[in-house]
């Protein structure tokens, strides 16, 4: 039984983070990343999403009020593991 991993590269727009107060922008950007991965990877009810610490640091790098406008990530789905979201090098 060989299980192949499904891998997708995505550019996630974070423009919705600017529709909330300045003090919540980075939090909203992280929520947008989760929402985008949920939609495009067709996440099932029993599946979880794991976001790498590097993605978090990239969003928070310029502080809470100025997250990036978009971010490039790579998503990996493997049988029996949560969906991994990592920063694209």
Overview of the structural elements:
- The chain has helices spanning 25-40, 53-60, and strands at residues 6-13, 49-51, 70-77, 83-87.
- The chain has 89 residues and is an alpha+beta fold.
- The chain has one domain (6-87): Ribosomal Protein L31e, Chain: W (Roll).
- It has a four-stranded mixed β-sheet with strand order 1-3-4-2.
- The longest helix is centred in the middle third of the chain and has 16 residues, at 25-40.
- It starts with 5 loop residues before the first strand and ends with a strand.
- The model has no long low-confidence stretch (mean pLDDT 93).
Short description:
This protein has 89 residues and is of the alpha+beta class. It has a single domain, classed as Ribosomal protein L31 (Ribosomal Protein L31e, Chain: W), CATH 3.10.440.10.
What is the element string, with H for helices and E for strands?
A: EHEHEE
How many β strands by DSSP?
4
Strands in their spatial order, largest beta sheet: 1-3-4-2
Uncertain spans: none
State the helicity in percent bands.
25-40%
**Would you tell me the structural class of the helices and strands?**
alpha+beta
Gyration radius, rounded: 14 Å
Give me the CATH fold name.
Ribosomal Protein L31e, Chain: W
How far is it from the N-terminal to the C-terminal residue, by CA? 31 Å
The CATH architecture term is Roll
Oligomeric form: single chain
Largest sheet: 4 strands, mixed
CATH superfamily: Ribosomal protein L31
């Amino acid at each position: 039984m060989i299980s192949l991993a499904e891998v997708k590269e995505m550019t996630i727009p974070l423009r919705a983070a600017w529709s909330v107060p300045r003090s919540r922008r980075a939090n909203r950007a992280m929520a947008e990343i989760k929402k985008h991965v949920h939609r495009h990877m067709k996440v099932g009810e029993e599946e979880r999403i794991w976001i790498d610490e590097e993605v978090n640091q990239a969003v928070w790098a310029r502080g809470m009020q100025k997250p990036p406008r978009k971010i490039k990530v790579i998503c990996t789905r493997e049988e029996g593991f949560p969906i991994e979201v990592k920063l694209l090098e």
